[in-house]
Amino acid sequence: MKGTWSMEHPKLDENYLNLGSFFDIYNEEDFLLRNMKIQNELIETQIIQHPIVEQTILDHVTFSDCEFEKADISDVIFKNCDLSNCRFPESSIFQVEFQNCKMIGTSFEGSYCHNVVFNGCLMDLSNLDKMNLKVMQLNDCSLKDASFSENKLNKVSFKNCDLNEMTIWNTKLKGIDFSNSQFETIEIDQDSTKGLKVNTEQAAYLASYFLDIRVSY
Fold first, then answer.
1. Coiled coil located at which positions (predicted)?
2. H or E element that contains 206
3. Engineering a disulfide at 64: which of 25, 44, 98, 132 sits with its beta carbon 3.0 to 4.6 angstroms away?
């Protein structure tokens, strides 16, 4: 069916992971964390340039006011984590799953994502600008007041997401389907909407937004 594609999931085997702490990343000179399972940990005010996290599960981990610039994150699962207001500028995120994570105000500005899934995540006020997104799914996520501008998209899907008051500028949405997601208002430029699939109510809003047309039913 058009609009569907296969995802590559994180390549890891939980049976072969070592229990540890996120702070083990400081044991390596190049800030490397690999083959780990980290649970129920609080990480506060950490600033790391180019950390590398591979084949790792983070479960119920809270990151508070952290910045990981140019992070390299691959084959990683975040479960029930709190990443609110954390910053991942210019990072590379490959084959990563975020499951039921709290990500209010989280910034991925300038990052590259390939084979990334967000399931049931709270992403209100997040900064998703200037990103290169290839094969990404957002399922049952809240993106209220999120910024989604100046992005390059390839095989990106939104399913049952709350997009209310989202800001979208200078992002080609051709082939993107918003019809099974929801918004009452959205800030978007007209060029970005070309080729965007919407439902009847969303079409009526966009007609009013751009053309001051009122649609009656």
1. none
2. helix 200-211
3. 44
Cβ-defined contacts of 157-166 (< 8 Å, 24+): 157/3, 157/4
Query: How far is the C-alpha of 165 from the C-alpha of 33, rounded, in Å?
Result: 37
Which residues, in sequence order, are CB contacts of 92 under 8 Å at separation 6+?
70, 71, 72, 73, 74, 111, 112
The model's pTM is 0.92
Using an 8 Å Cβ cutoff, are 66 and 85 in contact? no
Q: What are phi and psi of 192, to 5 degrees?
A: -65, -25
Determine the longest span between alpha carbons in the chain, in angstroms.
64
* CA atoms of 128 and 113, how far apart (whole Å): 11
Tally of CB atoms within 10 A around 159: 13
Backbone region of residue 20 per phi and psi (left: phi > 0; alpha: psi in -120 to 50; beta: other values) = beta
Contact, 92 vs 108, CB < 8 A?
A: no
Beta bridge pairs of residue 177? 197
Q: Which residues make Cβ contacts (< 8 Å) with residue 85, sequence separation at least 6?
A: 64, 65, 104, 105, 106
Using only the alpha carbons of the chain, give its radius of gyration: 18
Domains located in the chain, CATH noted: 14-167 (2.160.20.80)
Residue 146 Cα distances to 50, 75, 93, angstroms: 25, 26, 19
